[in-house]
Amino acid sequence: MKWTAILLAALACTGAQAAELPKSVRDHADVERYIRACESDWAAVNVNNDVKPLVACLADDYQGVSSKGKVVDKAYHLTPSGPGDVVSDTVDYVHLRYASPDVIIAQGGETAVTKSGKRHSLIWTDIWMLRQGKWQIVTSQDSPLPDR
User: Fold this and answer.
1) Diameter of the chain by CA atoms?
2) How far apart, in whole angstroms, are the C-alpha atoms of residue 81 and residue 59?
3) Cα dist from 18 to 42, 45, 96, whole Å
């Protein structure tokens, strides 16, 4: 647990994030741009292994279910896994729906390509909440699609 706190603190101090924070937490266009950028940043982690953008995008109490059915938390996603064999990971689409003024459901899909050329696709749902002036993912679920 102590290691997790140190890792989170170190990553938070780096502060270099690709997704710009929305100018207004209530301006739909700004918020939607931010969410789409965070979703793309998350997919990019599979290629560049740079977890820093996830510090702002994931809530501290985040919990989700991976595409392998494992329940994971924020610390899991902020632990760099080292170089993998994914050479590209692209968000294919993101649909956003306001469930309330403070909750957005993001449903999307993405496609990853490995060094061997194999394509892996998944669909996912992320629940975003506005808390203390910040939009963050509080939970997510990934589902793999048959390989193409």
Assistant:
1) 44
2) 20
3) 10, 12, 20
The rounded distance, in Å, linking the Cα atoms of 109 and 67 is 12
Stated pTM of the model: 0.83
Q: Give the three-class secondary structure for 79.
A: coil
Residue 67 Cα distances to 1, 46, 72, 93, 104, angstroms: 25, 13, 11, 18, 21
Closest residue by Cα to residue 21 from 11, 10, 31, 29:
31
Distance from C-alpha of 96 to C-alpha of 35, rounded to nearest angstrom? 9
CA distance linking residue 4 with residue 114, whole number of Å: 29
127/104 Cα distance (integer angstroms): 6
Query: pLDDT, tens digit, for every residue of 30-73?
Result: 999 999 999 999 999 999 999 999 999 999 999 999 999 999 99
Q: Is the dihedral of CA 146, 139, 35, 14 positive or negative?
A: negative
CA dihedral (147, 89, 109, 71) in degrees, to 10, reads 80
| Structural contact between residues 77 and 58, judged by C-beta atoms closer than 8 angstroms | yes
